Amino acid sequence: YMGTVLIGLLRMIRLNIPRRHFSTSGNRTIKAAVARSPQAPFTVEDVKIRDPRHDEVLIRIVATGLCHTDIAVKERNLVPFPIILGHEGAGVVEEVGTSVKEVSKGDHVIMSYASCGSCKHCAVGKPAYCYDHGSLNFAGSQPDGSLTHSQGADNMYGSFFRQSSFATHSLATENNIVKVPKHLPLHKLAPLGCGIQTGAGAVLNSLKAGLGHNIAVFGCGAVGLSAIMAAKLNRVNHIIALDLNSNRLDMAKELGATHVIQLTGQEAPQDIAKRVNSIVGSNGIEFALDTSGNPRALRSAFDCLKPLGVAGLIGGSAPGTEVGIDMLSLLVGKSVRGIIQGDSVSKAFLPDLIQLYEKGLFPFDKMVTYYEGGLGDINRAIAETKKDCIKPVLIISKP
């Protein structure tokens, strides 16, 4: 997820992070995987976490997904350091603030992104496009400038997606948690809160691709494969998966792709479009998704479209990256749109995905690798995502 990152906004936030942060005294010592600089490995350290405020929930983390966004914001220096990242947490409620109504101690929850709940976009059911999306999810601090974590006299940034789940405990808000049935294993549900939600939502909510449509998905990581499963679920005619990695294309076929194209990375966009169109037997497809953030892939996705077709951009690229589009092609109604979190309202969408999973219709766990070493396995998991591991989940504790 660099799937849900507003890269340009992140750059502005990174450059304008207020320096008058203050820590609230922590009452509980926890373990956390701390990122201290863009290139240094994560280190597991003792840190303090404060008590929950009136609208917050303290959660003992059972498992957390590791998303590409965690890696990208660290390596691209888009967050303050030192920081506790992680934004696909699942766990058990240990304490609740006085105004929290939806959950109680002992409830099982998964966590997702944060939104203000009151801006124009939140009010019309588009919280992923909250006016404060960047500051609430990426600034490393609370809206009032305070820090949820501390380590002696030093700053320790957190509040990543209002959770910072690379830890034994997290502070979240009632706004960004979803209560889940206790009979379902929390480690199975952990990765739903971001990348999987984003890919599935892009197809079901953003593009509304279905019967009679064709779609090409560029990139078969967790986001792309989730889009493929959603396209199969919604009975999309041709589901074409494109990737450089043959193992990921094999997984794409298993999860619902009707056709796969292995790329070399050297193809011209118009040549890729010809290969896609030869599969569907027409002059273009209705929908394409780029989950890679590669400008050549986005251009290829756009060139695959028929008139009025839509290319969705999920993958984020480095700040300042530009893509060239043939302006004449825009005149026939072709368009490119960005997609954050699959346009999902997590409290409604995640329970739907869980029900589909229970029915065997959304088998996202097939692409997951579980790391029993918990936080101590985080650097190994990151290294293996650059090989054949598609979706790592760190097991932090027992339910």
List the helices and strands and how they pair.
Layout: H1 7-15, E1 22-23, E2 28-35, E3 43-49, E4 56-65, H2 68-75, E5 83-84, E6 89-96, E7 108-111, H3 120-123, H4 133-138, E8 146-147, E9 149-151, E10 154-156, E11 169-173, E12 177-179, H5 186-189, H6 195-207, E13 214-218, H7 222-233, E14 238-243, H8 246-255, E15 259-262, H9 269-280, E16 285-290, H10 295-303, E17 305-313, H11 327-330, E18 335-338, H12 346-358, E19 368-371, H13 378-385, E20 391-395
Parallel strand pairs: 1-8, 13-14, 13-16, 14-15, 16-17, 17-18, 19-20
Antiparallel strand pairs: 2-3, 2-5, 3-9, 4-6, 4-11, 4-20, 6-7, 7-12, 9-10
Helix pairs in contact: 6-7, 9-10
Give a description of the structure.
This protein is of the alpha/beta class and 399 residues long. A hairpin with a 2-residue loop joins strand 9 and strand 10. The chain has helices at 7-15, 68-75, 120-123, 133-138, 186-189, 195-207, 222-233, 246-255, 269-280, 295-303, 327-330, 346-358, 378-385; strands spanning 22-23, 28-35, 43-49, 56-65, 83-84, 89-96, 108-111, 146-147, 149-151, 154-156, 169-173, 177-179, 214-218, 238-243, 259-262, 285-290, 305-313, 335-338, 368-371, 391-395. The chain is built from 13 helices and 20 strands.
